[in-house]
Amino acid sequence: MRVRERIKPFGSEKPQPVKGELIIIEDRCKGCGFCVEYCPNDVLIVSDKFNSKGYHPPEVVHEENCRYCGFCQLVCPDFAIFSIEEKAVESKSNTA
Amino acid sequence: MEAIITQQEAKRHPMDNLLRMDRMPHIWCPGCGIGNAVSAFADALDKLEYNLDKLCVVSGIGCTGRVAGYIKVDSFHTTHGRAIPFATGIKLGNPDIKVVVISGDGDLVSIGGNHFVHAARRNIDLTVICVNNFIYAMTGGQVAPTTPTPAYTTTSPFGNFENPSNVPQLAEAAGAVYVARWTALHMRRLTYSIVDALKKPGFSVVEVISPCAMYYSRINKLGDGLDMMKFYYDHSIIKHGEPTDHLEIDYQKEIIVGKFVDRERPTYSESMGKWFED
After folding, report:
1. Is residue B222 part of a domain?
2. What is the pLDDT of residues A11-37, one digit of tens each?
3. CA-based torsion, B94, B100, B104, B110: positive or negative
């Protein structure tokens, strides 16, 4: 076996995909568009529908790109969007 | 049943235990940056894991004065400009309580300017978060001491010719031990700056440049809150340790942000304890 196959530089397990949830509380949104503009992965767009106050809340279009960094939660001035990242269970790699 | 409750609890906003969510939606306009400052403050409290029974938030009058009503800790909504005197009293009466003043530029620098200077001179152990939106927004867009020179407001219809005050320079000259400035877009840096300011004993000032979408940018035809945020993104320059006399904000020019002052001085309580010991 070649050395390259035997020793993997970043541990023996593959990196797991990030899991989580992105939640929009639509009735709190005032449609400022900060989350849509400053999402690093362009997950959100401004939707066509109206909320109860007549603003256009954001809509999730590419949730597969979301890394649940939480910047939308920080930059939202109306506390209307948040993301919860499910913490991965600690693997037993490298220590064995 | 329990599983459903935990599922619902998992979907609560992470700041639910720090903010009075029953009062939401708040009164701030769409595109206003004060919510970002509150968000950063709540996130900083979350990071510090601070005991919320040992914390008091004081705010004055104005748009930013409403912050005290939205934070779920002991809070005071005081008279105009007198947030720092109230906070001083709370701090001297209860020295183990951490007191935070969140207020606007008109409240802290103009009407409460004298209190700001003397609290910094005495170095009372307060954390001041000054949300600067360049205008008196709640009262209808009057000219503020931080309004940049040619900007139009309702009380300067030919343009403002007064020289604006420079909050970091004022704070440093008066004797503050920690001075930083960020815009409402630098959320993570702002959060860590508030964490540092809360940890620092003494008078610490964090200035938050915030867009005012309804008055400042509407009268000056600068677009909405998002356009102001894009302007901050393009024109803010991070320069840590910049001398504070370089930090004047000109109209639609570059905004220097960063941490400018971090020094040690004996606080008021320490000086008082030492005086009575001798």
Report:
1. yes
2. 666 767 788 888 898 888 998 889 999
3. positive
Kindly list the domain boundaries of chain A, sorted by start residue. 16-85
> What's the token pair of residue B255?
């905004």
Residue A1, pLDDT > 90, answer no
Is B157 at the interface with chain A, CB within 8 A? no
Domain count, chain B: 1
**Structural domain boundaries enclosing B268:** 18-277
**A16 DSSP 8-state letter:** P
Tell me what pLDDT residue A10 has. Answer: 65
Q: ipTM strictly over 0.95?
A: no
Does residue B203 lie in a domain region? yes
Tell me how far apart the alpha carbons of residues B208 and B198 are, in angstroms, rounded to a whole number.
15
The CATH topology of domain A16-85 is: Alpha-Beta Plaits (3.30.70)
Tokens, residue A79? 């506390």
Angle at B203 between CA B197 and CA B206, to 5 degrees: 45
CA B64 to chain centre: 8
User: How far is it, in rounded angstroms, from Cα A26 to Cα A60?
Assistant: 12
Q: Is residue B246 part of a domain?
A: yes
Q: Would B10 be classed as within a structural domain?
A: no
A25 interfaces chain B, CB cutoff of 8 Å: yes
Alpha-carbon torsion angle B166, B149, B220, B38, nearest 10: 10
Report the distance separating Cα B232 and Cα B249, nearest Å.
Answer: 12
Burial of B61 (0-12, 13-18, 19+ CB in 10 A): buried
Does the pLDDT at position B10 exceed 80? no
Q: Answer whether A38 touches B (CB < 8 Å).
A: yes
Q: Hey, is the C-beta of B15 within 8 angstroms of any chain A C-beta?
A: yes
Tell me the average pLDDT across B56-80. 91
Q: Which of B213, B211, B217 is nearest to B229 (CA)?
A: B211
Contact B13 A38 (CB under 8 A): no
| CATH number of the structural domain spanning residue B229 | 3.40.50.970
Closest CA of chain B from A31, distance in Å? 7
